[in-house]
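Hi everyone,

Forwarding the result from last night's run.
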Amino acid sequence: MFLQRTKTAFVDALRAVFTETYPEREFRDLSISIEYPIERESYPTIWVNFTPMGQIQGAGVGHEEITLGQTKSPDGSVDHLMKRHTRFTFEGVVTFTVVALTSREKDALFDQMQRVLMAGTESRLTRAFRDRLESSTFIAITPTYENVDVSGDSASPGSPWGGESDVIYEISLSMHTFGEFYVDPEASEIVELSRIVVHPEVDVALPYRDVDIMGQPEQWIGSR
């Protein structure tokens, strides 16, 4: 439910950096995907993956979030509805694999990725990565920017398109990541974060009706 949206959020955040105006000309409009590149035209590229770890668990014991909405009754009056949602937390590792056709290109793109991940707030351009990630529609994502692991520095003969003389160069940067998302039990789907509004208490002066997890009215809150 959250895995593909998490990967997509990281892809969108990187694309917000490597645009047609990126200072390094060779990395403008860079190919970035959750799929491993199999076409020569896609190189150099960044392959994004996210590996969940540990438990996916509810936040708190019996904890619920509430969204407010409206619906019309058969008599034409407007009912104010409260719908319950459950907040879940997760963690895992996001991995950015730089894939290139030359060692020089691989090293240069690695340096740019290190700049984006570890010094993103110091530059207006690279700060776009964090800004886009923090404004993700469905997933609240918090990477540990201060700790980036480097692995998989390799050179492998051959290519996905059958070029026997080609060599694929790779190196990966990984960050431990924490995240949260909200689920609408009625529709079994993730709720947009913007729909969750936190209030210290429910205003019982408004005619809110409670809706259970099956979408059926449980009781009236306040007066109708």
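The radius of gyration is 23 Å.

Cheers,
N.
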